[in-house]
Amino acid sequence: MNDEPIRFDTKIAVLLREDLEPWQRLNVTAFLVSGLGTQVPEVIGEPYEDADGVPYLPMFRQPVLVFESTKETLTTAHARVLSRALPRALFTSDLFGTGNDRDNRAAVRAVPTADLDLVGLAVYGPRNAVDKVIKGARMHP
User: Fold this and answer.
1) Is the Cβ–Cβ distance between 94 and 106 less than 8 Å?
2) What backbone phi and psi angles, to 5 degrees, belong to 17?
3) Which residues are within 8 A (CB) of 48 and not within 5 positions of it... i.e. 6 or more apart?
């Protein structure tokens, strides 16, 4: 068994708007990271199994870092992630009022990019590029 620390040259980051309620932060984070796992297969590790041989689903192969910021910083991060064409997922305030994927997609599609009321953003990519996208945000406490 190799005991050397694993270093990643990539980063998974979630950026949340600082004024969300605790339940909203958890909900938004869960939805955002689910998008990355479906479109960026290299972020998913191997399946798990306990000592009794019971199997479990695979999870991300690396940590998910959660940050928070003002609405303005989140808007700037969104522009940065678009300009860098990194894999991303978004969550808008409108999605708190919907109850399914179809209505979520319709709510996002109804709003021009510049007018999206962002409450969360997930991004994956090279560590340096992700750091530039989330510049100005702070680690979630």
Assistant:
1) no
2) -70, 135
3) 55, 56, 57, 58, 59
Dihedral (CA of 117, 42, 63, 83) sign? negative
Cβ-in-10-Å burial (0-12, 13-18, 19+) of 37 comes to middle
**pLDDT tens-digit series, residues 27-37:** 999 999 998 88
Question: Could you tell me if residue 125 is left (phi over 0), alpha (psi between -120 and 50 degrees) or otherwise beta?
Answer: left
Within 13 Å of residue 60, how many CA atoms lie on the same side as its CB? Answer: 18
Q: How many CB atoms are closer than 10 A to CB 44?
A: 15
- What does the pLDDT read at residue 1? 64
122 membership: H or E segment, kind and range = strand 118-126
Q: What is the DSSP string of 78-118?
A: HHHHHHHT--EEEEEGGGGG--SHHHHHHHHHTS-GGG--E
pTM of the model: 0.91
Helix, strand, coil percent content, the chain, rounded in steps of 5: 40, 25, 35
